[in-house]
Amino acid sequence: DKMPERNAVSWNAIIAAYSQNGKGKEALELFQQMQLEGMIPNEVTLVSALSACVSHAYLADGKWIHSRIVASGLEFDVAMGTALINMYGKCGNLQVARKIFDKTPGGNAVSWTAMI
What we know:
globular
């Protein structure tokens, strides 16, 4: 609350920090606050938010983020695909995880591991 000027880098850093430390709910709250303050999430933000959904199996939030990705027209690359595969797979929706896996361009060891 005390940072005078917030930008995409500072938002991404704090959302990722919460997400990576098992604080998915807090990371998603920050993700929402970011948008309320007029910041548009980028690929890094979205991947961190998807990772936050995994920590407590927040499938509804993950689906909402997925719909935002589709609506925004962001490029669907291997990092975004892997984050979606991981989120859907760990939240128990293996059919959607597999569909995304099949559509993800340039799959690598990380995306294969997420699917397995």
